[in-house]
Amino acid sequence: MSKQLIECVPNISEGRDDKKIHTIAHIVETVKGVTLLDIDSGKAANRSVITFIGEPEQVTEAAFRLIKMAAALIDMRKQHGEHPRFGSTDVCPLIPISGITLQETAKWANLLGKRVGEELGIPGYYYEATATSPKRKNLANCRAGEYEGLSKKMQHLEWKPDFGPLKYNEQVAKTGAIAISARNILIAYNINLNTTSIDAATAIASEIRESGRIKRDGHPVTGKKVLDNNGKVIRIPGKLKAVKGIGWYIKEFGIAQISYNLTNISITPLHIAFEETVKIAESRGLKVTGSELVGLIPLKAIVDAADYFLKKQNYSLNISENEKIEFAIKSLGLNDVKPFNPHEKIIEYALKLKS
User: Where does a domain end: 156, 182, 208?
Assistant: First the structure.
């Protein structure tokens, strides 16, 4: 039987204070057998994505320690940033990598949530494979209203937390809430535009993302919402399945980005999200200047992107893996806003580097 490995990718609501980020991230290394792979911070988003890997019991313990440290160091009453969030550790997914199923991983996520609620007094919601209702499967629903709307949200029976305190109190005011899950690999992927317009980025995101956009009379943004016979808002579906997306402005880069979550890269791979975004941007008189990966990516996703662009440009696929990686980096513009180091950003390479 192969060794069970799971990855954990907590997102903390701190992307500006390097000392706090370092302290929170490196607490996972106090658990023997856990390997810290990556820390990816964004100042405008005020968010850090931390990636570590190991066997389920050790990773779950490391995640608990990280959540505890983040709760001690991050005060949500003072936190502001571009990225949606509702807690000091905003989300904490566990991801099966080898020797373990998603269902088995979900059991560890449930144990983590129970412990976070009981020992740390942080309210939380299970999403994706651990969701307790269909509405809670989608992270966006769990986080709707963000931190500022949490006190009212917790008063509604349909949004009673799955674990932790059921009532908003002084401690919850400081820590906010958390979303915990077991899920498959997700790619956090931002595409850069030659504009500073959030509206332009949002409009492109709404054409691409699976949920699409609200149908309106007249103006696509300010027009009156169109309702069906049951009084529900009608949505126009987006072009790509298994894609979530929003538009935002990143001050540190001086550009607008479309920020995607690719939730199933076997349905919509990286290169297709990029290509479709290029097409829609060009139809609106805009240009995609490059893209940015947040956190780590599987090697296969990069190689698949290289093969796609090689075929498109009528080049041979018979080149080395390293050459394919370099070709994908250039084709996707992954060095546009900051350097892309394959040994730090590709899961398999990062594991070798750390071992």
Answer: 182
Q: Catalytic residue at 219?
A: no
What b/e sequence results for 142-162 when a residue is b if at least 16 CB atoms lie within 10 Å of its CB, and e otherwise? bbebbbeebeebbeeeebebb
From 26, 80, 83, 343, the catalytic residue: 83
Query: For residue 1, what pLDDT is reported?
Result: 55
As to burial, measured by CB atoms within 10 angstroms (0-12 exposed, 13-18 middle, 19+ buried), residue 232 is exposed
What confidence tens digit (pLDDT) does each residue in 238-281 have? 999 999 999 999 999 999 999 999 999 999 999 999 999 999 99
E-assigned strands of the chain? 5-8, 11-12, 35-42, 47-54, 89-98, 124-128, 178-182, 187-193, 213-214, 235-236, 243-250, 255-262, 288-294
Claim: this prediction has a pTM higher than 0.85: yes
Residue 214 is part of a domain; what is its CATH number? 3.30.70.670
